[in-house]
Amino acid sequence: MKPEKIGRIAGISLRLVGRMAEQKLAGQPQASSATPPAPAVSPAPGPTGRPTGQMRRGVARGVGGFLRPFGRVGGIIWLEVTGVFFLLFVVAFASMAWRTHPASIHGPYDRTFITSVAVVAVFLYLSVSSFWRARRK
């Protein structure tokens, strides 16, 4: 996200919050005033006042735009941590496959060796694809 866009979103958000605060303060009586306060009039929706729903949507869009980069970075970190987690399984099962491998290439293969090689292949694929997806984001 470009710095100009972040500044624009922050500026819009601050203006909206300022307007809401101004409306809130205008509706409440002031204690230091000697004159009686004017009756609070809520702005009418339409050309003179902003409807509340439209203001909420504007604030929601501003906050969503501000949080979008953090969500992207959080997703990348999640994929990388998941890739490291899968690599731990690869290391554990690869050592088991190494301990149970047959002496010759044509030797008898037991179920433990075949299972550990299959698990290593699956978790290696999951780890590499997780890092690949994180790199593409």
How many β-strand runs? Answer: 0
Shape: rod-shaped
Number of helices: 3
Strand count, sense and closure of the main sheet? Answer: none
Order of helices and strands: HHH
The level of helicity is over 70%
| Contiguous uncertain segments of 5+ residues | none
Mean pLDDT: 81
* Structural class based on helices, strands and sheet pairing: mainly alpha
Domain module count? 1
Distance between the termini: 13 Å
Strand content: under 5%
Computed over alpha carbons, the radius of gyration is 30 Å
What can be said about this structure in brief?
The protein has one domain (3-136). It contains three helices and no strands. It has helices at residues 3-27, 52-100, 111-136.
